[in-house]
Amino acid sequence: MSMRTVDVVIVGAGLAAAAAAKRLVDAGLETVVLERKELPRHKICSGILSRRGHRFLLENFGPLPREALHEPTSCRGVTFHFPCMVSMTMDFFGGSTPHLHRKYSDYWAIKMSGAEVHDRTSFVGLEDRGDKVLVHARRQGEPLAYCARHVIGADGPSSQTVRAIYPDYPQSIPWFFVGQKFHDIIDCPLDPQYFHFWFHPGLGHYTWSHARDGRLIVGVGFKRGDNFAKKHENVVDYLAQKHGVRLHPHADDEGCGENFGPSLINRYVFGKGNVLITGQAAGFLNMIGEGMSCALHSGAICGEAVVEARLRNRPVQEMYRRMIASEVRRTSDQWNPLKIAFARPHEADFPAALMALGWRDRARVLRDLWRFVVLYKEFKWGRQIVRAAMQRPLIGGYSMRRWL
Ligand SMILES: Cc1cc2nc3c(=O)[nH]c(=O)nc-3n(C[C@H](O)[C@H](O)[C@H](O)COP(=O)(O)OP(=O)(O)OC[C@H]3O[C@@H](n4cnc5c(N)ncnc54)[C@H](O)[C@@H]3O)c2cc1C
């Protein structure tokens, strides 16, 4: 079996990988990206890119091609719905954001990075020998080997790279399932220009809906092991009764396991030795599941850390952990109730929308939020978020002691 020797191997060809690859290629490092699927590949995602993520793409890769967008091509903001039947619509700061078609946006970004991409090639394991890392992969059943100075795991929530260096990690975090079904619409009063999210303990941890390519997506997220069909049916009934949404039976559906959570409680995994972890594999996920902007930024920082470590001849983990602290703070702040109340960590103004309500509705919304985050008995992490926030002052950094 022949062995390909390069500077860096990146596992995964998503947005975190594209950003890391861009930094490495720009610095002149020979970089190979391994992607287990055939490209362009499907990626389950609502595709609502934050303004920050959009700026990153524009600055690093240029304007998005038309095929990288769904219909409607943009999203104006989010509408939060509460059991008390108050709905709060918030526009994103600075205007609409693109509605990405991940199959094509990610393919475009990885091509624009300039890295060499080996698709249909699955990462299966690695051996860190100190001065180099041997990577074992498989293409259509055939074993392959790579030798690299550094390896970057940008392989998403169920990362094999994380498992290769921390075999017990998957057992140490809670796992969720998110599933979405696509419906042809009979009648839908929900504004198609907004992403809709329900803070409702009777519906699930994560309940959303939005328009895409003439259909309505109805999505549910819950602790792994529950019944997708039942949870989804419950939401469809609720939308019909409470919002007058009338839908045909779903035409398509899809779902996946998700590591929602590490960023809520500042429990990231950044790697070991010459192996770095980034993007959602590292635990980056903003509030209400917005993960593309932090995937892009953490990926770029990861690439920069490798470049810097080589230039300065410093241990790469030390470099990465120091450089990633700002992105950790930004992401974990999104979940911090004190920050939400006083520091506008999001891309839409929740406190202003709340204050625009009459005092009676405001009190109802706060009561519903409290019930959702703190009292929801299945949502034990809600209590951890509140506890984590109370332990953290409004200024200062998050403790690095809990990072792997
Ligand atoms: C239902 C849903 C809706 C979402 N909606 C939004 C949204 O509206 N806005 C938003 O910003 N975020 C959203 N997210 C989150 C967002 O999709 C992710 O946070 C983001 O894609 C993470 O990017 P990444 O590059 O870290 O990983 P990924 O995009 O997951 O990319 C990882 C890549 O690694 C590849 N891979 C995995 N294992 C291997 C292996 N062993 N060998 C080789 N390749 C491998 C995968 O095939 C994949 O291409 C949503 C997520 C879900 C599930």
How much strand content do the residues show?
Answer: 25-35%
Bound ligands, each once: flavin-adenine dinucleotide
> What share of residues is helical?
25-40%
Gyration radius, rounded = 21 Å
What is the overall shape? globular
Mean pLDDT: 91
Largest sheet: 8 strands, mixed
Flag low-confidence runs: none
Order of helices and strands: EHEHEEEEHEEEEHEEEEHEEEEHHHHHH
Q: What is the terminal separation in angstroms?
A: 33 Å
Summarize the structure.
Helices cover 34% and strands 27% of the residues. With 404 residues, the chain is of the alpha/beta class. The structure holds flavin-adenine dinucleotide.
Ordered list of secondary-structure elements with their pairings:
Layout: E1 3-11, H1 15-26, E2 31-34, H2 51-61, E3 69-75, E4 77-81, E5 87-91, E6 97-100, H3 102-113, E7 116-118, E8 121-128, E9 133-139, E10 142-153, H4 160-165, E11 176-187, E12 194-198, E13 206-212, E14 215-223, H5 228-243, E15 246-247, E16 252-258, E17 271-272, E18 275-277, H6 292-312, H7 316-333, H8 337-342, H9 350-355, H10 359-375, H11 380-391
Parallel strand pairs: 1-2, 1-10, 2-7, 4-12, 10-18
Antiparallel strand pairs: 3-6, 4-5, 8-9, 9-10, 11-14, 11-15, 11-16, 12-13, 13-14, 17-18
Helix pairs in contact: 1-3, 1-6, 2-6, 6-7, 10-11
Bound molecules: flavin-adenine dinucleotide.
